[in-house]
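[job 0412] stage=complex_fold ligand=adenosine-5'-diphosphate status=START
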Amino acid sequence: MKLDAKAMRYMSTEDFRVLTAIEIGSRNHDIVPATLISQLSHLRSGGINKFITDLIKRKLIASESTSKYVGYKLVYAGYDYLALKTLSKRGSVASVGNQIGVGKESDIFVIAGDNEEQAVLKLHRLGRLSFRNVKNKRDYFRPDQSPSWMYMSRLSAMKEFAFMQVLHQHGFPVPKPIDQNRHCIVMELLDAHPLRQIEKIGEPGKLYSELMDLIVRLAKHGLIHGDFNEFNILVRDDGSPILIDFPQMVSTSHANAEFYFNRDVDCIRTFFKRRYGYESVLYPKFALDANKEFDLDVQVAASGFTKKDQSQLESFLESEQADGLAHNNDDDDNEEEELPSDEEIVYADDYDKDEAGSRDSKDADTEDDEDQDDDEDN
Ligand code: ADP
Ligand code: MG
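[job 0412] stage=complex_fold status=DONE, emitting structure tokens
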């Protein structure tokens, strides 16, 4: 999915207020009625039509009819816009460059912050799989659709950021977390390649042991990655591995912990055997090696990503797996990721950060910072 950074440049204060109002309204309404948009945006109901038409034309919102009324809802581009606006105000994103990854449920871009340092922006897109094969796109916007893609994508980003922070603080080889808002995270850009792209390794046994040690070290800290495979392990030129992609991490006290632990171990064993012809009789076992010494799982829960968040996200991911949309992936090695061509990517290096910055004090409750409403059920 393309990231239309160009939309950032031409947005009036009113457009932004209407967009924000639709976001807030969608916490309680799958389709937000115009009267509510008017109330939340503090704009006259007669006046909002123009802005709504404009936002629809730019594909930031979509209109949708229920049996009772015509209303509006955010689509991904609109949600992207709101997140980028916030990240840009905070100085974490100043320009958006090349797309470097299309994950199953994410889009990854190189960006630069106000400090001009390059970083990575990961936009979580949960629900993309679930809806990919739905012919009738209207199903995607079904009024009773719950939990929504927006809510699940935000939970996924919150979780990934919380885990990345805790792991980074404890010296695990993961990208440095920089910022998070809505469904987006900003993290360090790694100078490393996915293991999947590495055809030959001088000493496969060395990397194999390092990876198994990493699985064990995580478990001793109370954590299981849950998707520990050649796509989510990046390798630096010096051969050292870095772990990415944390939305599916679980605690070693999870009911299926042993299953997840063994699956991570098996992924590595299978890949090393298939790709490098390397096999070892040594591999960690949950019962012997996963005895917990530290409580990072508890620390993450204390960081704001609650147990309730965790279980909601988990059941969503599990339902996708049950539908045959498994996150954990066993693609054959020939299949290349599909990246958009250059023309499809819109670059933005000068969008206006102050636009829409001037809302009056009545708007305090429509502040676009999501940090305060973590436990809202939108
Ligand atoms: P998904 O959840 O969609 O699998 P990932 O977080 O695994 O997304 O990222 C997908 C791909 O993007 C990775 O395989 C890697 O090539 C690239 N990538 C992700 N994060 C970084 C990063 N911090 N630095 C460099 N490349 C990254
Ligand atoms: Mg991944």
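The mean pLDDT is 82.
[job 0412] exit 0
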